[in-house]
UniProtKB/TrEMBL annotation:
Alphabetical UniProt keywords: ATP-binding, Membrane, Nucleotide-binding, Transmembrane, Transmembrane helix
Topology of this chain in the membrane: Multi-pass membrane protein
Keyword set includes Protease: no
GO aspect biological process, one term: cysteine transport
Pfam family, one: ABC_membrane
Protein name per Swiss-Prot or TrEMBL: Thiol reductant ABC exporter subunit CydD
Alphabetized GO MF terms: ABC-type transporter activity; ATP binding; ATP hydrolysis activity; ATPase-coupled lipid transmembrane transporter activity
Gene Ontology terms: cellular component: membrane
CDD domains: ABC_6TM_AarD_CydD
Coiled-coil region: none
Location(s) in or outside the cell: Membrane
Length: 556
C-alpha cells in the first residue's frame, strides 16, 4: 500500500492504491466516455451542417440520405460507448469495494479479539458495510468522469476554435469558474461527510447497545429514556444529512447558473453576429452552420464539468468514509503472524522475558519465562485482575509482547474458551459446527456428553436443532459454558487455552468437565487453564501463580 512520509496510509493514498488494481477497467470506462462524447460532437456538427444544407442551400433530403445514415450510426455508436462506460465503471467499482472490504476484514482479524473487545460491534459493522459501499460513487462515477472532463472539453474546444475562435476563447475563459467553485465547495463537503459518517457509526453502536440491553431496560423501567436517547441521536444524524444535502443542492444550483450564463452569452454572440450587429473578429464569417454548431456545442462543452460537479459529493463521501477505514488500517497489528521454532523440539509454546503493556495502562504483566511441553496440563491461578486472561491472550497470539520473545510451533492451532463464550443466534448444531464445520451428529453428541451438556439435551424437544439467541440467550451461564466446552472438544487444535472453564458449574458437572479435560490431555493435547478452583489445580501437572504481574511456578 502507498503511505505518506510517516509510513501511514492517508484516505487519498488508499483510494489511489485501490484504483491501481482496476486501472485497465477504469481507463477503459474513461475512454468509452470520451468516445461517446466524440460521437456527440459528430452528431451536433453533422446536424448543423444538414440544417444549413436544407434551409440555406435548399438541397433535397433524398440527396442527404447518406449523411442521415451516418448520423444514425453515430447515435448507435454513442449508445454502445455509453453502455461500455457504465458497465466497465460499475464492474471496477464492485471489484474495488470487494477488495477494500477484504482488506478491512483481514485487518480486523490481524488486530484480534483483544482489540475488538474495546470497539463497538455496531460501529465496526457499519464501517465494513456502509463505509465501503460509500466508495461506489467515487469509482463508478467521479473517478472516470474526472478523466473524461480532462479530455472531452479540450476536444470540443478544438472543434469550436476551428468554427469560431472567439467563442473558443470565451469558453476557455469561463470554464475555470466551475472547477474553482467545486474546490471551494469540496472543502466543506468533505468535512460534512466525515462528520456524517462518524455520526452514523455512533448511532449504530448506540442503537445496538440499547437493543442488547432491552431486557435490563425493561426490568428497571428505563425504556422511555432509552427511546428518547435513540431519538436524539437519530435527530442529530438527520441534521447532519440535511446540511450535506443543502450544500450539494446549493453547489449544483450555482454551477448550473455559471454554465447557463456562459451558454446565454454564446447564444447572444451568435444571434447578434448573424444579424450583423457584431463586426469583430470572425463574427463577419458566421453562417447558419457555424453559428448553430458552436451554439449546440457550448452546452456539450460544459456538460462534462456539470456532470463532474454532480458527482463531486461522491468524492467527498468517499474521502469521509476512507478516513474512518484508514484509521483502522493504520492500527498496528496485535496478533502474532510469524512463529519461530522453539529451542526445544518438545516445547509447544515458549515465552522468554515476555512483557505486555497496554496503551494508557502501561506495564501489565512480565517479564515471563515459560515453556510448555506437548501433552501437559498447566494451571494458572491468581487474584482477579492479576493477569491470567492477559497471559492466555499472549499464549494464543492475540497480542504481541511489548518486549521479550514469543515462540510457538508453526501451524499449531489454538482452541480458546473465554469467560464469556461467543455463542451466535442459531441452533445448537450451528454453534457446535463453528469449531468443526463437517462434524457429524454423533460427534456432536459425544462432545456434548464430555462437556456435561447431554442431560439438558435430552430435555429439549428439538435436540440439536434447538434455537438459542445471541450470546446464549435461552441458556443459563453454566449451560452456555458447557456448550462452548463441547465446541472445544470438537476442535482438533493441539493447544487448548481455557479461561475459568468450570465457572458457573455445579460440583457434579465440574467433576465431569475435569475428567473430560484429562481425556483431552491423554489424547496428546496441551491444556493451559486459568482457574481459581482447587479441583482443577490438583488435576494439573504444573501450577503457576500470578503475583503482581509476575508468574511463579508452585511446586506440586
Amino acid at each position: 500500500m502507498v503511505a505518506d512520509k510517516s509510513g501511514l496510509l492517508t484516505p487519498r493514498s488508499w483510494l489511489s492504491e485501490l484504483a491501481k488494481g482496476e486501472r485497465k477497467r477504469l481507463m477503459g470506462a474513461s475512454l468509452c466516455g470520451v468516445l461517446a462524447g466524440s460521437q456527440t460532437i459528430t452528431l451536433v456538427v453533422g446536424l448543423a451542417w444538414l440544417i444549413q444544407q436544407l434551409v440555406v442551400e435548399a438541397r433535397s433530403p433524398s440527396v442527404l440520405l447518406p449523411i442521415f445514415a451516418l448520423l444514425a450510426g453515430c447515435v448507435v455508436l454513442r449508445a454502445a460507448f455509453q453502455w461500455g462506460h457504465e458497465t466497465l465503471s460499475l464492474e471496477a467499482s464492485l471489484r474495488i469495494r470487494q477488495r477494500a472490504r477484504a482488506q478491512l476484514l483481514d485487518k480486523l482479524a490481524e488486530l484480534g479479539p483483544i482489540w475488538l473487545t474495546n470497539r463497538h460491534s455496531g460501529s465496526l459493522a457499519n464501517q465494513v458495510v456502509e463505509h465501503i459501499d460509500a466508495l461506489e460513487g467515487y469509482f463508478a462515477r467521479f473517478y472516470t468522469q474526472l478523466r473524461i472532463t480532462l479530455c472531452l472539453p479540450l476536444l470540443i474546444l478544438v472543434v469550436v476554435g476551428w468554427l469560431d475562435y472567439l467563442v473558443a476563447v470565451f469558453l476557455l475563459l469561463s470554464a475555470p469558474l466551475i472547477p474553482l467553485f467545486m474546490a471551494l465547495v469540496g472543502m466543506g463537503a468533505e468535512r460534512l461527510n466525515r462528520d456524517q459518517f462518524v455520526a452514523v457509526s455512533r448511532l449504530s453502536a448506540h442503537f445496538i447497545d440499547r437493543v442488547r440491553g432491552m431486557a435490563t431496560l425493561q426490568l428497571f423501567g428505563h425504556t422511555s429514556a432509552a427511546q428518547r436517547d435513540v431519538w436524539y441521536a437519530t435527530d442529530e444524524y438527520r441534521r447532519l444529512s440535511m446540511r450535506t444535502l443543502r450544500l450539494a443542492f446549493l453547489s449544483s444550483a450555482v454551477l448550473e447558473f455559471f454554465a447557463s450564463v456562459a451558454i446565454a452569452v454564446v447564444a447572444m454572440y451568435v444571434g447578434f453576429g448573424l444579424l450583423g450587429y457584431i463586426e469583430y473578429g470572425p463574427s463577419q464569417a458566421l453562417t447558419l452552420f457555424s453559428g448553430l454548431a458552436v451554439l449546440l456545442l457550448a452546452p456539450e462543452f460544459f456538460q462534462p464539468l456539470r456532470t463532474l460537479s454532480q458527482h463531486y459529493h461522491d468524492r467527498a463521501a468517499a474521502l469521509g468514509a476512507a478516513e474512518s477505514v484508514v484509521n483502522i488500517l493504520n492500527e498496528p497489528d496485535l496478533i502474532v503472524q510469524e512463529y519461530l521454532g522453539p529451542h526445544e523440539a518438545s516445547a509447544v509454546i515458549e515465552l522468554a522475558g515476555a512483557c505486555v503493556a497496554y496503551p494508557g495502562r502501561g506495564h501489565v504483566i512480565g517479564p515471563i519465562d515459560l515453556a510448555i511441553e506437548q501433552g501437559e496440563i498447566v494451571a494458572i491461578s491468581g487474584a482477579s485482575g492479576s493477569g491470567k486472561s492477559t497471559l492466555l491472550a499472549l499464549l494464543a497470539g492475540f497480542i504481541r509482547p511489548s518486549s521479550g520473545e514469543y515462540r510457538r510451533q508453526a501451524n499449531s492451532q489454538v482452541a480458546w474458551l473465554d469467560q464469556q463464550p461467543c455463542l451466535l443466534h442459531g441452533s445448537l448444531a450451528d454453534n457446535l459446527r463453528l469449531a468443526a464445520p463437517h462434524a457429524s451428529e454423533n460427534e456432536m453428541l459425544v462432545a456434548l456428553q464430555h462437556s456435561g451438556f447431554a442431560p439438558l439435551l435430552t430435555q429439549l424437544p428439538d435436540g440439536l436443532d434447538t434455537l438459542i439467541g445471541e450470546r446464549g440467550i435461552g441458556l443459563s451461564g453454566g449451560q452456555a459454558q458447557r456448550l462452548a466446552l463441547a465446541r472445544v472438544y470438537l476442535s482438533k487444535a493441539p493447544l487448548v487455552l481455557l479461561d475459568e472453564p468450570t465457572a458457573s458449574l455445579d460440583h457434579d458437572t465440574e467433576k465431569l468437565v475435569i475428567a473430560a479435560l484429562l481425556e483431552l490431555a491423554n489424547d496428546g493435547r496441551t491444556l493451559v487453564i486459568a482457574t481459581h478452583h482447587p479441583a482443577v489445580i490438583s488435576a494439573a501437572q504444573r501450577h503457576f501463580m500470578f503475583e503482581k504481574g509476575e508468574l511463579t511456578e508452585v511446586a506440586k
